[in-house]
Model the fold of this input.
Amino acid sequence: MSDILWTGKEVAAACNGKALGDAAWTVTGVSIDSRTIARGDLFIPLKGPNFDGHAFVAQALNQGAAGAIVADIPKGLEGDARLIKVDDTMLALQDLGRMGRVRAGGKIIAVTGSVGKTGTKEALKVALDSQGKTFATVGSLNNHWGVPLSLSRFPADSRYGVFELGMNHAGEIGPLSRMVRPDIAIITTVEAVHIEFFASVEHIADAKAEIFEGMDASGTAILPRDNAHYARLLAAARTQGLTRIQTFGTHEGADGRLLNYEPYADHGVVTARIDGLDVTYTIPLPGKHHAVNSLAVLLAVKAAGGNVAEAAEALAGLAPIKGRGQRRAVEVEGGAFTLIDESYNASPVSVAAAAGVLGAAELGPKGRRIAVLGDMRELGDHAPAMHAGLADPFVKAGTDLVFCCGPNMRHLFDALPADKRGAHTPDSATLAPIVTAAVKPGDAVMVKGSAGSRMALVVDALKALDRAQQDNNPQGTTAGNKAGKPRDNDAV
Done:
């Protein structure tokens, strides 16, 4: 049986709600989505401009939810002892999250940055799990509702908690940090991501530095020493009163310093010096950017009182996240090609890094390196130049063909040498059949784009070519039938 997360009475007290009965029930999870309700969950229906979760309260209870927090009592559930009445369910979720933080006894680590947040969060979870009960944000629940939801799911007996904080506008991370109140804060990097909403990259640095606002003087800030905006981040941390500041990168003065990186097709071997301790370890994710972020992970482990050597060894168990580097061999007539799924999101710096990963991929006989790219969103007036500027990384990586979709990717397509231009189409739906017709055994195919570009359609179309999958599913699949709804404003 799952551990009890909250009692009904605790829920009512946390959100200043009125229980419609004796609240003599317990919950083992918290959900805001009736489609994913598990038995024993607490359901919190939220209201939005185009939806109201209260319409699904009865369904959630019928599916096994132990209780629900409601602002409006659904018809037919008047007096139902499983309900707690509040004025506003969003505020109730925030209150429950704050109480989740108040009762926590373990060390809390918060992660933000223009790119690499989710990967760093997952690496922290793996590294710390080897040393004690560790809770981490699921997926990318890093915004104004994802953070309190994660805190509400935080078991009080956890030794460590890892929370991802995201934003696409100034002023968003500060309130999240004050809710999480981290003991340790990591900023992975500062880059021109969401630059459409900022006057400059310096303003993005200031927005990321809001992560320090929820910390007290005993906290530890971990900063990217190689980043152009390091001095700005350092000043922000000191202004907030933080004195425990550590750095990571290749810089000779970094507390977590990369001494050597050996790249391989599907992993990397790292030699690093972590606050005076030399360690060598394997990360099963290719790309130097993963190696650099692992230094921040190990510094955070030490700051949290963990064992650095054990944590470094545990990183060998790290696995790629869906849409963020997962690989699979797709069996087609005459052999197989390698599919590298980077379809979750994209920015100039992450696409350039993905070009390097594609360049290191192993090929079969007569195999080619193929990039399939969708528009990078929220770059504003910088979009044409930033898309065109990606031509050089792909040429240097030895990419054979680049397929593009979207109006902004036209700038990259036109900037490429003629012999590397695969095709350009208006959108991913029209690009998918062109790519599936072009791939051959031995190829390495990397797919990447912002969430709103719906590059998962291309990934699904390529997966549908798999003969092994077809053998197990004689009815076949429709390309794109699993593609999720795009979120143009993903907080990163």
About this structure: The chain has a mean pLDDT of 93.
